[in-house]
Prior knowledge:
It is a single chain. A hairpin with a 3-residue loop joins β2 and β3 (124-131). The protein is 45% helix and 22% strand. The chain has helices spanning 10-38, 47-51, 54-63, 72-91, 140-152, 179-198, 220-225; strands spanning 95-106, 109-120, 124-131, 157-164, 170-176, 211-212, 215-216. The protein is an alpha+beta fold.
Amino acid sequence: MGYERGDGNMNGLDEIIAEEEAINLAIDTVIYSYLQRRTKVYADIQVTDLVYCPRRAYFEKKYGKKHNSNDFSLIVGILIHDFMLQALAEELNADNEVLTVEVFNIDGDFVKVYAMCDLLTDKYVLELKTCGRLPDIPRESHLMQLEAYLRFFDRDYGYLVYVNRNNGDRRIFKHYRDDTIYDEFKNRLDDFYVSLKYDRIPFYYNESLCKFGKRKCPYYDICYESSAIQI
């Protein structure tokens, strides 16, 4: 046999159990530390706060980040994403994970919004998304994210690249600047900043992220109990 649970010696069994608990604890620690590094907050407001679910971002800043620790697919997706970014940057002669900041004037306050794009070339911005199923059209949140990056990095067009993490299939969408999308982004920014400033719940939210499959947003109960939305 390739494993054992003990030889009848109680001390030996206790030692094996202690080792297994230590291994489990080490795995949990590694996963938690990795998620913390990958979801760090660069500043008070980031582009991703606004394009996915501003209400979730609001609760994260108010109560601290919460992770679905049992979602191991998230780790796999991040690892594939990071590996592909490094390889694509070399192949496309691009810079990867480029950080910048844009300053907006909101009611007389100068507000910094931070952005980190996946890949930046002399001509375009590229955002890479790993997924379990390829979408037929780009997701609205991803389009808004790319739209903001086009403005922040002063590019006229960009690409959304979806890669199926199970089989490597991919789908590529080209996107040019769209004033309507950027206007909505700025509306979300105005609302989000006022929400942070006066400690009120943002108007904008993404109902599709409240529950996804058997899981739900880690702030679902807080959001529901505060009567922010009727779910």
